Amino acid sequence: NSQPYEQWVKENLLSLNKLPDASNEFSQPSPEKLLHKQQSFGVSSEEVNEIILPLAKTGYEPLSAMGADWPLAILSHQSQHLSNYFKQLFAQVTNPPIDPIREWAVMTLAAGLGAENNLLSETPQHARVLALESAILLEQELDRVKHMDEFNFKSRTIDTTWAASEGAAGMQAAVTRVCAEVEKVIDEGSLIVILSDRAASADRIAIPSLLITGAAHHHLNRVKKRLRASLVVETAEARDTHQIACLFGFGATAVCPYLGYETVRQIVANDTKG
User: Fold this and answer.
1) Residues 209, 235: contact at Cβ < 8 Å?
2) What burial letters (b/e) apply to 153-187, b meaning 16+ CB within 10 Å?
3) Whole-angstrom Cα Rg for the chain
4) Rounded to whole angstroms, how far apart are CA atoms 234 and 189?
5) How much is the pTM?
6) pLDDT, tens digit, for every residue of 222-232?
7) 137-167 per-position pLDDT tens digit
8) What are phi and psi of 47, to 5 degrees?
9) What's the confidence (pLDDT) of residue 90?
10) Which of 82, 80, 79 is nearest to 210 (CA)?
11) Beta-carbon neighbour count of residue 238 at 10 Å?
């Protein structure tokens, strides 16, 4: 009874799933362009067949051995996904199982976008949150997030690629540039910052999503502006739960794995033709 919490929530909380989609149309790259994109982001045929395909058909991760029993990424002679350096090295199980399906009353996949206010105070602005049913966004959901200025949830998209002509040395300058741009748009009032590698092409190289997410997160911590906005990652690099979980661990509030969706649409199109 100390504060009108329910009223604050009703007046300030905004649920994304209750808003109309900004767009339901998304251009699907041609099979050739999709293949080039998959190659540039290290998507193998094994990954498509053993991970993405079962996820698309059943909605569940494929069954496999627990823990990581393959050689350490640091000892590999092959290019590795950055998240592979953070694999757990032991088998872990809980009894009873803990997951949001069995433990729906106490667990959630939901997330909230916007500024985070002082935990030691209570104001109506604390309830000013854009609520997401899931922290893993569909493309149409992310498109809606990008058009929330009308509801005073200002968002800006930052390009996380750099010119291939600059070579490997260009990545450090690109990371510095992205961090500066993130700080600048937050100073201008953005509550949601979207780190996007959609501009990746033969001429532009994507900064590893895990690297740039962590860099932006720690930069904002250093300048004491981290709680003023949420970081959303729009990336082709993350396809499985571990890769996405690493992004959450390094500062992302929500992730849109768009290349995974494009791959699934291509699989569906091929099945339809067949």
Assistant:
1) yes
2) bbbbbbbbbbeeeeeeebbeebbebbbebbbebbe
3) 20
4) 21
5) 0.91
6) 999 999 999 99
7) 999 999 999 999 989 999 999 999 999 999 9
8) -65, -40
9) 57
10) 82
11) 28
